[in-house]
TrEMBL record:
PANTHER family: OLFACTOMEDIN-4-LIKE, OLFACTOMEDIN-RELATED. Residues 60-146 form a coiled coil. GO terms for biological process: signal transduction. One of its GO terms (cellular component) is extracellular space. Residues 1-18 form the signal peptide. It comes from Oreochromis aureus (Israeli tilapia). Its main location: secreted. Residues 185-460 form the Olfactomedin-like domain. This is Olfactomedin-like domain-containing protein.
Length: 460
């Protein structure tokens, strides 16, 4: 290489020696620009994203749930005070009702305290975030002065373009897949959207039990209309042996279980204890998959007796026919019990159905019997959970840590199946261990990594 350069140079030298001397020509590059401080921009970006991750959606919903709890509680108090006034007999003045109201006042006080401490935490967080944002803003303005190279402006234009593209894409996609959900067994049958979460709470045992189910009895016994129930899989994330009851949504949120536990059996696991998370309470009885059997068990909370119903031969059980997503399956989710306006259903799969979802109606009675059965063409392992609403079966699938999609429906009236429902649910944590619809208030109750979450279902 050097040799190659030297030879022409020598030739040039000899040439210049022969040629008349020329004027010297110099070109000085004077860069008046200071170098753009990319490092600083990176720090600002990191600080901004730290700030973002401090304010999570969980924190905003937490406050909303508390307020909802308080709202429900206050209307209950109002009702009870009205009853007390009616009971006024001059002498006794409804001693019993007074006692009830005193309890309620205590509960409301606890709720307000929790609200107060949450609000204060939020204020600290907000103050912190505001200060950080001010700093970031000042820093960005400083950087913009540097920005003769248009680095930041370029980025702003880029992100605006990206947003436009995203909007455009979305518009296109929604026009391609118009959702016209099927008709079911009741007027409220066109499921349009799922919004929320409305409630998000860690409840009484924050973070303790990853698997469980909770909800509201759609056909409650008298006086228990506002009760909520909770089943946590307390043994190996598989088994449970009691139902925990709460007299209201707010007592569930603040973790005060007044009626307490109703025990199925003192040991866990054993015959007839609960196996797997997808249970429901209906008409004062818990319906669930029971220990080591292809049975639906019904536990009457009043009489504390269990009646059983064997599912068809070939039914997959003991974690052989689970709900799954690409990464993993949810263990012991062989049987998914569900409630809707018409009663109790069971969703499962069998060997003869090659792992596709099978749906059966449970007919009440002594003992309960298996009613009509429908076979679907959706593979159970491609589904993360199901629920029933107005005689229509809906199935969900995992999209990512933040989003679950209701993608499938099966109409028991027409037998029509759809794979393009396209309704998205915002998640507060990665997994949904159980999901059920409450026809009383059109809410979806989900148990998500030990949190209790509920969504509002909108019908057309
Ligand atoms: C280069 O820029 C500096 C600062 O603006 C100035 O002081 C200097 O005279 C310039 N040099 C030339 C050759 O223009
Ligand atoms: C980024 O955050 C760190 C630590 O909180 C802080 O020391 C620094 O001043 C911040 N930088 C900017 C540009 O806001
Ligand atoms: C909220 O908490 C603060 C500090 O713990 C207390 O001073 C204040 O009285 C509380 N407010 C209410 C309405 O309980
Ligand atoms: C406020 O911000 C600082 C620095 O970013 C952080 O260390 C601190 O934990 C924050 N405080 C709260 C209550 O979030
Ligand atoms: C729209 O659909 C296309 C192709 O299926 C996909 O690449 C794109 O991410 C979708 N856009 C939105 C906003 O969902
Ligand atoms: C459903 O609700 C979400 C948020 O609540 C909203 O962003 C979305 O546009 C709604 N979808 C439809 C089809 O109304
Ligand atoms: C539970 O038992 C009681 C008393 O026998 C009965 O009245 C009630 O109907 C039973 N509930 C269910 C759901 O079977």
């Amino acid at each position: 290489m050097k040799l190659y350069v030297i030879i022409p140079l020598c030739a040039l030298l000899t040439l210049t020696q022969q040629a008349p001397p020329r004027e010297k020509c110099a070109c000085e590059l004077n860069n008046s620009e200071k170098a753009f401080p990319h490092g600083k921009l990176r720090i600002v970006e990191t600080n901004a994203s730290d700030c973002n991750s401090n304010i999570t959606p969980q924190k905003t919903v937490e406050l909303e749930s508390l307020l909802l709890g308080l709202e429900r509680r206050l209307s209950q108090l109002n009702k009870d005070v009205l009853i007390l006034e009616k009971e006024d007999d001059g002498e006794l003045y409804g001693v019993l009702s007074l006692y009830v109201i005193e309890n309620e006042m205590t509960e409301i006080k606890q709720l307000i305290d929790k609200l107060n401490s949450t609000t204060q935490q939020h204020q600290i967080l907000t103050a912190n975030a505001t200060e950080q944002l001010d700093n970031l803003k000042a820093e960005m303005q400083e950087l913009e002065k540097f920005d003769t190279m248009q680095v930041i402006k370029g980025q702003q234009v880029n992100s605006a373009l990206k947003a436009d593209l995203f909007k455009c894409n979305k518009k296109l996609n929604t026009t391609v897949t118009p959702t016209e959900p099927p008709q079911g067994t009741c007027p409220r049958s066109r499921l349009l959207n799922v919004t929320g979460p409305r409630v998000y709470t860690a409840g009484e045992y924050p973070g303790s039990y990853a698997y469980g189910a909770w909800g509201r009895d759609p056909r409650p016994e008298e006086g228990k209309e506002s009760w909520y129930w909770l089943v946590m899989l307390t043994s190996s994330n598989i088994y449970a042996h009691y139902v925990r009851l709460y007299s209201s949504l707010s007592s569930l949120i603040i973790g005060v279980s007044v009626p307490g536990n109703v025990q199925i059996h003192s040991s866990n696991p054993t015959t007839n204890t609960i196996q797997g998370p997808n249970n429901v309470l209906y008409g004062g009885a818990l319906y669930y998959n029971c220990y080591n059997q292809d049975y639906v068990c019904r536990f009457n909370l009043t009489t504390k007796s269990v009646t059983t119903l064997q599912l068809p031969k070939g039914t997959r059980y003991n974690s052989k026919g689970n709900f799954c997503h690409l990464e993993e399956c949810y263990p012991y989710t062989d049987l998914d019990l569900a409630t809707d306006e018409s009663g109790v259903w069971v969703v499962y799969t069998t060997t003869q159905d090659f792992g596709n979802l099978v749906l059966s109606k449970l007919e009440e009675g002594e003992p309960p019997v298996l009613g009509k059965t429908w076979r679907t063409s959706v593979y159970k392992r491609a589904v993360t959970n199901t629920f029933m609403a107005c005689g229509v079966l809906y199935a969900t699938r995992y999209i990512n840590r933040e989003v679950e999609e209701i993608f499938y429906s099966f109409n028991t009236v027409t037998g029509q199946e759809r794979f393009n429902i396209g309704i998205f649910m915002n998640k507060m944590s990665t997994n949904i261990q159980s999901l059920n619809y409450s026809p009383v208030d059109q809410m979806l109750h989900a148990y998500c990594d030990s949190n209790m979450v509920s969504y509002k279902v909108l019908f057309g």
